[in-house]
Amino acid sequence: PNSSPGGGIWQAGKGLVTDNTHIYLSTGNGDFFPNKGAWGMSVIKLSLESDSLQVADYFSPMRESEYSDEDKDLGNCGPLFIPGTNLLFIGSTKYGEGYLMNSSNLGKHSK
Q1: What is the dihedral of CA 49, 51, 57, 62, to 10 degrees?
Q2: pLDDT digits (tens, 9 = 90+) for 46-63
């Protein structure tokens, strides 16, 4: 929801995806402070380490703060794997952009 400080898993009801090693998901608008565990407007790659899920990698658009303030979620659709590849696609964002990501390196965030 818009009041969530850290962004929530939304994906418009779509399920999480996996490559049989990691779990991938997208979050809606909210605060983005990775060092504090706030992952708004992100695609997140989770791994199981010591019986706990940990963020292994992530992507957040360069303009995540602007998009979040305008309720233009990245997380309104869940990521999809392209069969036979290590590529993830996330599209139909509220701001009209799509992203093709390599699951080995999601790209993190650059301002």
Answers
A1: -150
A2: 999 989 999 999 999 888
